[in-house]
Amino acid sequence: MFKRSIILSILAASLAVMGFGSSNVTYADNEPACFPVVRLDSVAVLSGLNATVTVTVERMPHVGGMDLVLCLDPTMQFLAAEPLGAVADWEYFTFRMSEEDTCGGGCPREQIRLIGIADMPDGKDPDPAVYLPNGPIVKLIFGTPADLDYICDCFDLRWCWFDCGNNAFSSPQGESLFVAYNIDAMLPDGKCLETGQPIIPSVRFMNGKICILPPPDGPGGENHGDCNADGAIDLADIVYWLDYVFHGGPEPLGDHFCSGPCRADFNCDDRVNAADIAALVKFVLHQPMLHPCAPKCP
Ligand SMILES: [Ca+2]
Ligand SMILES: [Ca+2]
Ligand SMILES: [Ca+2]
Prior knowledge:
Blueprint: H1 2-17, E1 37-40, E2 42-46, E3 50-58, E4 65-72, E5 77-83, E6 92-98, E7 110-117, E8 135-143, E9 154-159, E10 168-170, E11 177-180, H2 183-186, E12 199-206, E13 208-213, H3 235-246, H4 260-264, H5 274-285
Parallel strand pairs: 1-12, 2-13, 11-12
Antiparallel strand pairs: 1-3, 3-8, 4-7, 4-9, 4-10, 5-8, 6-7, 9-13, 10-11
Helix pairs in contact: 3-5
This protein binds calcium ion (3 copies).
């Protein structure tokens, strides 16, 4: 039932884009603040590490399928997408990527398409709860460049539209599509509003970004916390620090970069105190995180 209707709705959208059908537009009558939201995270990640960006849905009515398209700067390397929450229990989920230039030249962009269908024609019905996928729905994983030229740069992740069926959720029976509340601005040719398919412009799509943090090995920074001067910051340094400060153990080994007490001063505030061991423990247990002495972005 549903699968047939989603196929019909896709067909209807295609026919509509080709100019068939009559105007049949339904506008949501609530305030934009109450509209369903589809949101991309903004995240910051150390240069060269993978960035995880979550797609989150809020206030969405019951839906049975989605077709989402986002565009990103090719500097970010898209690696994978994984369904989350209710969408992880949908019967079909796939992602595709394309590097084709769909904007007429001169604007290289990469596109990621996320397609999900709650109920496929496999004789099984999904749990009714999957039709209400509010919360995180997809995890996107990107590789970031290790190139120092990108330090402190941010790269946009934007929802993008090439035709009416992009960035749309279908109703559970597939008879209508929930699209961007401002779809006429996203597809300025107005084609989407002229389709014969019931579309409900109601969803607020919010963009995200990935920002690249400086590496934690700024001048001298890597020495702060390396109490045993072996070039790594790990559990042994916590032990060394505790012994030095609380049990009268030996001073950390200094060098011309960083004196002994300098190495115990993990957070670079020129004092050795409890704040250093707290930050050091957090750093060792929760790496990768930014070293407190790393150069900061403006
Ligand atoms: Ca099924
Ligand atoms: Ca060490
Ligand atoms: Ca300190």
